[in-house]
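Ticket opened by: R.M.
Priority: normal
Category: complex prediction / small molecule

The reporter submitted a protein together with iron/sulfur cluster and asked that the result be attached to this ticket for the collaborator who will pick it up next week. Submitted input follows.
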Amino acid sequence: MENRELGIYIHIPFCKHKCYYCDFVSFSNKQNLVKSYIEAIKTEINEYFNHKKILENFNVTTIYIGGGTPSCIDSKYILEVLELLKNKLKNNQTKFEDMEITIEVNPGMVDREKIEMYKKAGVNRLSIGLQSTNNKILKEIGRIHTFENFLETYNMASQIGFDNINVDLMIGLPDQTIEDVKESLNQITKLHPVPTHISVYSLIIEEGTVIEKLIRENKLKEMDEELERNMYWYVKNTLELNGYEHYEISNFAKPGKASKHNTNCWLQKEYIGIGAAAHSYLNSVRYANITEIEQYIIRMKQLDKQVIEDILNLSDNSIETNLKEKIKPIYEIEEVQTVEDKKKEYMLLGLRKLEGVQISKFKEKYVDNPIFLFRKELEKLVKEDLINIDGDYIKLTNKGLDLANLVWEEFV
Ligand code: SF4
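Result attached by the on-call engineer:
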């Protein structure tokens, strides 16, 4: 039997400065904890990969180092973590060199030495957070870099040999105009070489962020929804005209360059999250690490093999388990899925992808035909023109792309 594919996510929760829209788990004043945090990460990796069931039953195919800002810590730590993984994975089915290994970097927080070190450590994909090419907007949203910093980082990475680079952009920002979005796309698509991947996220105003406060106090104006949608469609059309495939609500890639790590998550494949606030999905259990860095460091000292063993020994039907209580001191269990939960979730995740849910794949995985299983929901969504059924695929319509939340709600 083929080993199950597994992704590894590593969370680096340090940032130099908190962006005004950010509600990710990241801290700008805890750099003094970096060293002990990395030690805790290594402990967690060791516990997972000292475990026979992980080593023998899984095939790790992707590693994703995200944050926070992984590039704001000394690159020797990234090297240490990846060297440990390389060592642990020496008998892994997919060779370390053939895995997709991504690191997120922020312009202005990397230099040549760091990027060279990432390459040496085995990283083969960079994800650069730009958000906009307009320096005034960057300042307004609390980014610490300029467009010129981005160009410097991008060109340096290309020269060093990174040929698989994602650029993150944002739309729906206060004061942003369609002209700004046009200008950002224009600048990005004329880079040499062009990025292989572009992610475009709509601003979500999260409670407790600086932006939310400024909007509440009428110091900034929230974007009107219609304008934000116009931006989205402008981005979609422009990037498609430039040879990018729109493969997920917010993601565009040159052929063959879709993010394997994220695509596997949308295909409901398993992953383990290492680090504070990291989420995992293993053996039908969704669970999360504590968000406080200090607590995470303390808890990792108590982590032992038994915790992971308990998750791995859980069978699909043991929903009655006392697992939650047993492993609570280390991980917070979010969901122990039944087969029925998994089928619904497969639909929800699959409908994030533009190609949609492949009916034959669903049948292969779950035996049932989703058309019959979700007949009521699908009929309703087809009637509302939010999805269509196109041969072997159930997918979002153009209207569904704008109202995807209504589609996903049917499968929660
Ligand atoms: S760099 Fe990213 S994680 Fe850090 S504060 Fe900004 S948006 Fe948040």
